[in-house]
Design brief:
By secondary structure, the protein is an alpha/beta fold. It has a single domain, classed as 3-Layer(aba) Sandwich (Rossmann fold). The chain has helices spanning about 5-10, 15-35, 55-60, 75-85, 125-135, 160-165, 175-190; strands at about 45, 65-70, 95, 110-115, 135-150, 190-200, 205-210. It binds S-adenosylmethionine.
Amino acid sequence: MNSTVEQIYSSKVASGYDRSMSHFFGKFKEKAFSNSRMKEGDVVLVFCCGTGLDFPHILHRIGSSGKITGVDFSEAMLEQAEKKISKNNWNNIELIRADVTDFGNRLNLVADIGVCTLGLSIIPDFKSAYHNLLSNVIDKGEIIIGDMQLASGWKARLNPVTIAMAKRFGGSYEGHKNSLELQSMMAGTLNDMKKKDFFLGSYYVCIGTKQ
Ligand SMILES: C[S@@+](CC[C@H](N)C(=O)[O-])C[C@H]1O[C@@H](n2cnc3c(N)ncnc32)[C@H](O)[C@@H]1O
C-alpha cells in the first residue's frame, strides 16, 4: 500500500461507494457519454474504473460486440466491479489491477476511446496517468475526462464545500486545482475539445479527439 488514496479505496469506501455516488453523478455520466461518438463495437479503456459505475453507460453504446478494459489499483473496488459484471452477465469486460501512472502503453494503441471519470483529480501524478491514457488510444480516437475542478467567479464560494465533500474520496484543493492544468494539457493534445461544466462549475466533462 503506497498512497493515501490507495488506503482510502481499500477500506469501507468500496462497499458503500455506489450508494454514495451513483445517484449524484449518474446524470453527469449519462450526459458525458451521450455527447461522445462512442459506437457499436468500440474498444473502450477506462482508467480508475472503480466499481464500474461507467460501465452501463458505455455498454449502452458499444453493445455486446464492443469491449471494455477497466483499470484500477484498488482490489476492493475491483471486487465490487466484478460482482456487478457477474450479476449483469456482462462478458465483454476485462479488469486489470494496476496503477494508471505506471501503466505505460500496455494496450498499445488499441482502444478507440479512453475514459477517466473522478480519477485524475485524486492522482498527484495526473500528468503521467493522462499520457498513459493517450498512449493506449488510437490516433483520432476519443478521450473523455469527467472530474471535479475548482469553480471560478462567484461560484468559487462553493469550492470549500465541494472539496470537503470530496475529501472522503481522496479529493483535495490541490487535486481540484490540478484539473485546470489538465484541461490546458487536453487542449494542447486533443482536437475539437469540448468542455461542459456541471454542479455549479465544480464538475466538468471534456471530450476531444486525439491528434
Ligand atoms: C472516485 S473513484 C472513481 C471510480 C469511477 N471512475 C467512478 O466514476 O465512479 C476513484 C478511483 O480511482 C482509483 N485510483 C486512484 N488512483 C489510482 C491510480 N494511481 N491507479 C489506478 N487507480 C487509481 C481508486 O482506486 C478509485 O477506484
